């Protein structure tokens, strides 16, 4: 009996030992499973390249893409980084559209009116002579169907556009000779892109396409007789006052020029939804930030041009402005008649402008007149 008791004890001990060992194994397995489930895998990082049509870090225009890159890096905690290249560093300024469309880079920053050779309608998303200002254009884009039309135009090229900044009303430009009448426009070689260039051509001028980095030397050498660029802030930085004697206003040709961020659709689709949202929010922030910066900096630069550099600032003669306005209406009708997509976008733009003008006539315009005591 004792032997049997001992045997049973041994048997009992053996069973308890096995159960104890099994419990340790199960605990280890459970712990490993919990550790595997609770482990945070490193999140995928995305590295983008952005090419621009502006000199690297150029005030305003060149700063905007850098600001975008900083916003995206911070909001994504480094999961999406964007390296910015100025015009000519990876591709020439006028090849930004193709580089992004072809997937050579993921993103670009430029002006839509440079791509009229791709589609005439692209010009409408930058600005229209005697069209809407920055405030009105932003409203059309984001609440009037403009951005949807913009994306419809760019879809065949594999691009997604976003508004990427606005400089506000630009000045008429720098001229090497006086403009006293419309006759002074005849044969004048001027750097002026987009629909403004078409209007200038309609009145006998010769529009020439140049990137910002080419303006000063072209004006100084006589390759062009005049140039518009942006306004006092950028014009002072380029030193255009050294190459032309007369600075004319107001900016009939670009009353609210919108810049653009363009993104390759495949690159954008590859991002998780939160990073896609970050890209979109960052573009909206930069779009407003640029307008704020130009509104502040143009004031200071204009004072410097007039007081320090003694620049001769003049308004364009009234008859010249009237001729430009009349020619603009003709050009817009011709362009709309020649291209169905242009017409589709223009009808949306024009309808919105008519409505917003009615309100601004009794709000913004009246306020400006009252503030000035007129």
Reconstruct the topology from this structure.
Layout: H1 2-38, E1 46-52, H2 63-75, E2 80-85, H3 96-101, E3 107-110, H4 134-143, H5 146-154, E4 159-166, E5 173-175, E6 189-191, H6 194-202, E7 206-208, H7 215-221, E8 226-227, H8 232-238, E9 246-249, E10 258-264, H9 265-269, H10 273-308, E11 312-315, H11 318-338, H12 340-362, H13 364-372
Parallel strand pairs: 1-2, 1-3, 6-7, 6-8, 9-11
Antiparallel strand pairs: 3-10, 4-10, 5-8, 5-9
Helix pairs in contact: 2-10, 4-5, 5-12, 6-11, 8-10, 11-12, 12-13
Please tell me about this protein's structure.
The N terminus is likely disordered. Strand 1, helix 2 and strand 2 form a beta-alpha-beta unit. The strands form two sheets. A six-stranded mixed sheet has the order 7-6-8-5-9-11. A five-stranded mixed sheet has the order 2-1-3-10-4. The protein has 374 residues and is of the alpha/beta class. The chain has 13 helices and eleven strands. The N and C termini lie far apart (123 Å). Helix 12 crosses helix 13.
What descriptive keywords fit this protein?
374 residues; 5-stranded mixed beta sheet; alpha/beta; disordered N terminus
**Total DSSP E strands:** 11
Strand content: 5-15%
Radius of gyration: 30 Å
Tally the helices.
13
Mean pLDDT, to the nearest integer, reads 91
In short:
Helix content is 51%, strand content 14%.
